[in-house]
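hey so i finally got around to running the thing on that chain from the lab meeting. sorry it took forever, my laptop kept dying and i had to restart like 3 times. anyway pasting the input first so we r on the same page abt which one it is
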Amino acid sequence: MIPRETLSSAEIPGGDRLTLVRHGGDYIIMLGRDELMGTRMQFSEEQLAELTLALLAAPRPRILIGGYG
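ok and heres what got predicted. didnt touch it at all, straight out
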């Protein structure tokens, strides 16, 4: 099993803690015990692209979607 290595963390307003961890070759931003985003997760970007494309009238639009990180 690959261990998670804490690279950095910071307390945020409200007392919660944001943590950047490395898990093998992947990086994950966590809020408490919840994973907010990581290098392996891209669901939010895919959903944003699908919703945007559904609203565009162009026959072959070109868009660029980036993550929050």
